Amino acid sequence: MKNTFSYENKELENSRIKLGETVSERFGERQPLCFLHSFGCQQNVSDGEKIMMMLSTVGFGFTNDTDEADLIIYNTCAVRENAEDRVFGAVGNLKHLKEQKPDVVIGICGCMAQQKSVCEKIKNTYKQVDLVFGTFAYNDLFVMLEEIYSKHTKVFNIEENTGIICEELKQLRIDKVKATVPILYGCNNFCTYCIVPYVRGRERSRSIEAVVNEVKALVNEGYKEITLLGQNVNSYEYGFPELLREVDKIDGHFRIRFMSPHPKDATNELIDTIINSKHICKQLHLPLQAGNDRILKLMNRKYSVSDYMKIVEYARSKSPDFCISTDIIVGFPGESYEEFCDTKKVIKEVGYYNIFSFVYSKRKGTKAAEMEDGISDKQKGLWLRELLLEQRETAMEINNKFVGQIKEVLVDGKSSTIEKLLNGKTDEGIIVEFEGDESLIGKFVNVKIMKAMNWALHGEIAE
Ligand code: 5AD
Ligand code: SF4
């Protein structure tokens, strides 16, 4: 094998070498190609990048075209039903391809695959699928593929294990400007609507040293924005504010973001750490989910509206325009229109610059799935529209405050709406559009904000 990469873990390294040889024998001089698509959150995308890195070390290249792929992997999300429907649709479409190219290996992995009922459904209904593996099985990828290639069997591996973190599994990052770094895996919270604790197991934290070293290496490679990931970053075993302060000590011109903190243990110390830092974006994504105490209790969120408001008020007392965004679930089982209106009230009071809102989706196996639910999805959809319309006005008000200011923007790329415009994001995460040369993509640029829209700001490069 041409590849000189080596894992310190002997078992992993041996299985990698073995699969590398099998791959060389099977494909000869031709480089095998993998199509991998990750659905869902950044954590899942980061897992997908780990799988890609593993595959690249045994000789795989990558393609965006399923027709020319030798290995197709859908890395799936289970958080809402529509995410699952999209995967079933995509895999259903591969039936014809598998008939034409029986040698192509089709795999489904990630959160959705981790559920027993889904794994069974795939086994029984989607015969074109050769490989199903859950969120605990990434370390076994080489062994699983070896089994498929050498024994021509199918593999279904959704066993839960202790989920030991293998620090050697690095991500193959396609983006050269923004990177994600997981700091902890799993979730212990058991919010009653949420499937995540069932498909990602209990919390496991990486060490401060491992995270800091990875961020340092990324900054040295030239990355400009690094997002620390965890289902609940505040549960980070060795202290989240402490980790942030350590990462903040790293030299260079870069930004740190993180996703997501749980309001039940967001502390004043966390807010102080953000505000006093050099690199951490002055922004907080603080998922409210609902603005009514009865619903919050049914959700098992472990905070009240007044607890939540205390954090917001502390942040605003330190920095009056502190930008906060949130997640909202509309139509939790048993939620009345009046209770939904309480959520709208809290939203107005906080003044979020951005809201990610979703209609409640029933997830089999969760507590909420057993709760009485009298409101139709259609009705919930109307509530959601109402919320979004009000939010537009709030976003406009917040964005207007930036007019006249000079903001540092990290340039993402060309605008999707108007050809000659570039777009990027402020420290707070607000989109800014401005005229500029493509060579600025991936760089920090100072932009004078001239105009606000409800979804973005418009500006001109400042001298
Ligand atoms: N239905 C709708 N939205 C959900 N979320 C999590 N579970 C569900 C569900 N069953 C939302 C929450 C969470 C975000 C990542 O997804 O708002 O913060
Ligand atoms: Fe991410 Fe949760 Fe979806 Fe899994 S179920 S991909 S953890 S959002």
Short description:
With 463 residues, this protein is of the alpha/beta class.
Can you walk me through this structure?
This protein is of the alpha/beta class and 463 residues long. It has four domains: 10-157, Methylthiotransferase, N-terminal domain (Rossmann fold), CATH 3.40.50.12160; 175-281, 2-Layer Sandwich (Transcription Regulator spoIIAA); 283-400, Transcription Regulator spoIIAA (2-Layer Sandwich), CATH 3.30.750.200; 406-461, OB fold (Dihydrolipoamide Acetyltransferase, E2P) (Beta Barrel). It has 14 helices and 19 strands. The protein has helices at residues 10-27, 42-56, 81-92, 95-100, 116-125, 141-151, 196-200, 208-221, 240-248, 268-276, 293-298, 305-318, 337-350, 377-400, and strands at residues 33-38, 61-62, 71-76, 105-110, 131-133, 155-157, 178-182, 184-185, 204-205, 225-229, 255-259, 283-285, 323-330, 354-359, 406-414, 421-425, 431-435, 444-452, 457-461. The strands form five sheets. Strands 2-1-3-4-5-6 form a six-stranded parallel β-sheet, with helices on both faces. Helix 6 links the parallel strand 5 and strand 6. Helix 1 (10-27) runs parallel beside helix 6. The radius of gyration is 23 Å and the shape is globular. It starts with 9 loop residues before the first helix and ends with a strand. The mean pLDDT is 95. Bound molecules: 5'-deoxyadenosine (5AD) and iron/sulfur cluster. Iron/sulfur cluster binds next to helix 2 and helix 7.
CATH class of the largest domain: Alpha Beta
Mean pLDDT across the residues is 95
Proportion in helices? 25-40%
Strand content: 15-25%
Q: How many separate helices?
A: 14
Strand element count: 19
Q: Which structural class matches the secondary elements? A: alpha/beta
| Major sheet details | 6 strands, parallel
Quickly count the domains: 4
Weakly predicted, low-confidence segments: none
Identify every distinct bound molecule in the structure, by name, code or SMILES.
5'-deoxyadenosine, iron/sulfur cluster
Whole-Å distance between the termini? 53 Å
Strand order of the largest sheet: 2-1-3-4-5-6
- Spatial shape: globular
Relevant CATH superfamily of the largest domain? Methylthiotransferase, N-terminal domain
CATH architecture of the largest domain: 3-Layer(aba) Sandwich
Radius of gyration: 23 Å
Which fold name fills CATH's third level, the topology of the largest domain? Rossmann fold
